[in-house]
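Why do we care about 3D structure at all? Because function follows from shape, and shape follows, mostly, from sequence. That is the central idea of this module. The next example makes it concrete: a single protein chain, its amino acid sequence, and then its structure expressed as tokens.
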Amino acid sequence: MILVYLIGVLIGGGLLALMLGQWNKYLPRWIALCALSAGFIVLLFFWIDQYSTINIHLSNTWIIDYRHRWIPSFGISFHLAIDGLSLLLLVLTFFLGILAVLCSWNDVKERVGFYYFNLLWILAGISGVFMAMDLFLFYFFWEMMLIPMYFLIGIWGSENRVYAAYKFFIFTQASGLLMLLAIIGLYFIHGRNTGIYTFNYFELLGTTISPAIAFWLMLGFMIAFVVKLPIVPFHTWLPDAHSEAPTAGSLILAGLLLKTGAYGILRFVLPLFPHAARELAPWAMLFGVIGIIYGAILAYSQTDLKRLVAYTSVSHMGFVMLGIFAFNELALQGVVMQLVTHAISTGALFIMAGMLKERLHTRDINQMGGLWVQMPQMGAIAMLFAMASLGLPGLGNFIAEFLILLGTFNAHVLLTIIATIGLVFSAIYSLRIVQKVFLGPSERQDQVRDFSFREITVMAALTLTIAWLGLYPQPVINTVKPMINKLEYIFPIENKNTQKKIHQATPSKAYQYLVKKQKERYVR
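And the structure:
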């Protein structure tokens, strides 16, 4: 029941914050902080407890599997399960959720209860996405993320918040409806073939589908996920949403909502449609590389600090797309590291952008400069995370991008070389941030304060995390190894122990073996 409790504490905390916020504007933030801290502590101790056994039973990748009948007449169940990937992303969700509350501590002064209600319900939806093993339930949580974020941007955002909120809603809702059609199509095809109509993920694995229909169904899932990721040309909602969202909204958008797109591809697109995914792989890798270069160029051309950081996310998520469809063990390890490290480094940059906006009342980097003299602590931390964003060795982003490029080189040499150029561009825009904001001459006469105790606590947590991931990434890699091992039965992923291809059989036989193992686990 731990999975149910995790969602319940967020939903219940949100409702409690909404009700008590009418009498006391300080209670909601404490309720949100306590709810997220309790969930984070539970998950952290659970991860530590399970870590020693995760790699022992590689055939059984599911750590917890909970199912309760919900709407049996339609084959819908309340089915939650987590493996190493889900566990890692849940820890990240609660960690960033705590920081989002601390970022909003003194910034939100209107409708405080409703603000923390939306914040906690967004995190509840994200947590549900990472745990749902019933496709109807997955879609329910997918939509649950959308509406609270719409309110978060539309009510507490900047000047152009209404436009940004509508654009975010239309992009994600339209793509989500395509995914719903694909889910319904898969539901009816499986029911027609077997006589069992179900949305259960494990039963839908291995459904016999003609190649043409499988490709279109896969495309319905894929569009929803690449819009959320986002990948060029479906990225245009992201800069507007980031630039207008409050600081906590930008942190959740960059750190968590984007990761649901990558998670969806890894969890649903590859296992449910392996042959269609292989056909799509060259194009997906190409668009990933386009996103890397295009996002970096657009980032360099921005003068709005938050839009600049937003375009860096487009570039970094291009590495995720490139690594996923390389079907390589090293690349997939790098993808998971990129999901975590991007959340930390880019989240930190958005938090600092919000702090600068609060102090200077502008996001225009041309109106900044010379701030290091007055804000040496923020300048040093900004330099650290700028270096992390460009992939400096010793920090987490370097491990992620190095593994992706190393693994992708075995799949497509030319695209890997082009993607490597993106690292050069990332160095240019990262150093530009530091130069424009903290160095150079300053024409400001007023005094600008440095970090407060609350702010330095937030940045210290992010700094220690990105340094830990750069110096000792093995816990993350070991945690997701069973999930990657499971994908080895679907695609020919290189095994670094034997330096041979594990996948010697035909894709259909290997996939049938995976489905058999999954169904045996489900029956037990």
